[in-house]
Amino acid sequence: MKLINHDQVLKKMSPRKWKNSVFKGLFMFATALALVVLAILLYRIITQGIGYLDWQFLQSLPSRNPEQAGIKTALIGTIWLMGVVAPVTLILGVGTAIYLEEYASKNKFTSLIQINISNLAGVPSIVFGLLGLTVFVRALTLGTSVLAAGLTMSLLVLPIIIVASQEAIRSVPMELREASFGMGANKWQTIVRVVMPAALPGILTGTILALSRAIGETAPLVVLGLPLFLAFLPQSVFDMFTVLPMQIYNWTSRPQEEFHAVAAGGIIVLLIMLIVMNSIAVLIRNKFQKRF
Amino acid sequence: MKKRFKYVASTLMIGSVLAFTTACGANGGANSSSNGEQTASEENQQLQGEIKIDGSSTVYPIMEAVVEEFGMNQPGVQVSVASSGTGGGFKQFIAGTTDISNASREIKDEEKTQVEEAGIEYSELKLANDGLSVVVNKENDWVDSLTIEELKELWIDSGETKKWSDIRPEWPDEEIKFYSPGTDSGTYDYFNEIILEDEPIVEQATLSEDDNILVQGVAGDENAIGFFGFAYYVENQDKLKVVPIDGGNGPVEPTHDTVESGEYAPLSRPLYIYVKNESLKNEETYEFVKFTLENAGALSEDVGYVKLKDEEYEAGLSTIEGLK
User: Fold this and answer.
1) B14 to chain A: which residues are within 8 Å by CB?
2) Whole-angstrom distance between the N-terminal and C-terminal Cα of chain A?
3) Which of A83, A264, B186, B318 could form a disulfide with B104 if both were Cys (CB 3.0 to 4.6 A apart)?
C-alpha cells in the first residue's frame, strides 16, 4: 500500500498554495490600510501644523491672533493631569487585578464584578464626566481642580488597566507560583517576587492604552466645566487648569482657517507627548520581558 | 531590528488612533487675517484676585481676547474662561461658581427664576452683535432671497420631505438638505425663538455642534441650506452664497454694516455677558467688566463679530457704575 498518493498531493498542491497567498494578501491589505490611513493623517497634521510649532508656541498663552497663540497652560495642565491619573490608576487598577486574580474566590459574586468591570470599559466617557461633576466637583467641593479631573479620568480608564492586568496575571504559568510556594514563600512574597515581575510587561501594555486614552479625552472634562483660557499655571493639585485636547477642540471649531493650523500644531505636540510616554513604557516592558 | 520597527509602528498606531478623534474637525475654511489691535489702558494700580467666567462658546473668542489684553495690564488677576455653552454657563452661574456668564441669547425665563431663587442678582450687558447668516451652495442660482415666512416653511418639520419647488414653484424639483447648529447651542435657541417658535426642526436636518461641519455640508451639496454665525460665513465666502433675508422691508444681505445698523433683522442677535452684582463690588471684577465694555467693540471686530453702537457700551458702563 502506498502511503502517499503523489498524484493526489500534486493535484491539491496548487489550490492550497493559492489559498495561502490569498489570505496572506488579505492580511497584508488590512495592515497596509491602517498604515496608509496613519500616513495620510500624519502628513496632513504635520504639513498643516509644523509652521506653528516653535518654542514660542510652547511658551505662550492662547490668543485671538493665531500667530501669537500658544499652548503653555494646556501643555502644563496635561502633564499635571497625567501626574494624577498615572499613579491613581496604577495603584487602584493593579490592586484590583491582583485581588480578583490571586485572592478572591471564584464564585458568582466575583464573576458579577468581572462582568461589570468589562461593561464599564464600554460606558461613554461623558457619563464619567457627569459622575465626576456630581461626586468630585460638587459633593467633595474639589471644583475644577487637577485632582477632581484626575480622579474622573482615573475612573474612566480604570477598567482598561484592570482587564489588561488581569489578563497579564492570569497568563503567568501556575508552575511558577507552585515552585515559589514549594520553596516556602507565602502568597504575598509569591505575588511580589514571582507573579508581578512576570506580569509586568502585560500590565504596562494596559497602562499605555489607558493613559493614551486619558490624555486625549475631551468630553468628560468639558462636562466638569474645565476652563479653556487661563493666564496662570497650577501650583498644586487643588488649582484650576486646562488640557491640550480641549484647547485643540476649541481651535478646530473656530471660523478662521489659521486656527485650524494652530490646532494641528497642538495635535503634533500631543502626539509627541504620547509617543514619549509610550516609549518609556515600551522600554520598561522590554527590560522586564527578557527575564522570562 | 525588525522587532524594534514593530514597536515603533505599534506605538505610532496607538498614538494616532487617539489623535484622530481630536483631528477630525481640523479642516475647511478660507483665508483671512485678524490683526492684533493694541488696546491701551492707563491702569497703574496692580490688582489681585480671581474671576471665573463660563458660558457660550460663541462669545468665548471675544472674552479670550479681552482676557488676553486685560492680563497684560493686570497680571495679578487670575481670570479663567470656560466655554461649556450658554445653557451650561447659566447652570454654573445659578450654582454660584462663576462671576460672569457668557451668553449668545437672552437668559430664559426658567433660568431667571432659578437665579432669583438662588438669591443671585445680576446685570445683563451687551458685548457685540452677530448676524445669523442663512447660506446655500455656491452653485445654487435660484435662491435670491427668502422671507421669514419661507424660512418657517423650510425649517419647521411638516412630516414630509421638502423640495425646493414646494417653497416657490419656479424653483427646482430637488430635495432640500438641511444643516443646523446643534440644539444645545445659543445659535439654535435664537433661531428657534425667531423662526421655529418651538415647533420641531425639520427631521432631515443634519445637526452639528461644530459649525465648520455645517460649512462643509452646505459647500458640498447643491441643494443644501444652512445657518450659522456671521463669522463662519465671512471666513468661507468663496465657498458659500449668503441669502438676503426679507424681514418685511425688502431683502437685506447680512454685512458688517447692515448688522451694525440693525437693518439686518430679525436675524441679528446680540451677544451678552451676565455679571453677578455681588462680584462687581470686588474692585478687580469691576475693573475687568469696565475694561471689557471699553474694549469689546474693537476686540469683537477682531474675532469676526460686529461691534455695537457706542451708546450701548456707554449704557453698560453706567449700569455697572451704579453697582460699584
Assistant:
1) 208-209, 212, 274, 278
2) 48
3) B186
B38-48 pLDDT, tens digit per residue, is: 444 444 578 88
Distance separating the N- and C-terminal Cα atoms of chain B: 71
Which residues on A lie below 8 Å from B296 (Cβ)? none
- pLDDT tens profile B118-168: 999 999 999 999 989 999 999 998 888 899 999 998 999 888 888 898 888
| C-alpha cell, B96 | 454660584
Question: Helix (H, G, I), strand (E, B), or coil: what is residue B121?
Answer: coil
User: What is the C-alpha to C-alpha distance for residues B85 and B102, in angstroms, rounded to an integer?
Assistant: 8
Q: Which residues in chain B are contacts of A251 at CB distance < 8 A?
A: 26
Chain B residues inside the 8 Å CB shell of A245? 22
pLDDT digits (tens, 9 = 90+) for A28-52: 999 999 999 999 999 999 998 888 8
Query: What phi, psi does A235 have (nearest 5°)?
Result: -100, -20
Between CA A196 and CA A191 the distance in angstroms is: 6
Contact state of B82 with A226 under an 8 Å Cβ cutoff: yes
Query: d(Cα A108, Cα A106) in Å, to the nearest integer?
Result: 7
Most A CBs within 10 A among B8, B22, B24, B234, hence the mutation to make, goes to B22
Q: Which of A226, A252, A278 sits opposite B15 (nearest CB)?
A: A278
Under-50 pLDDT residues of chain B: 1, 17-43
Domain A57-288 is classified in which CATH homologous superfamily? MetI-like (1.10.3720.10)
pTM of the model: 0.80
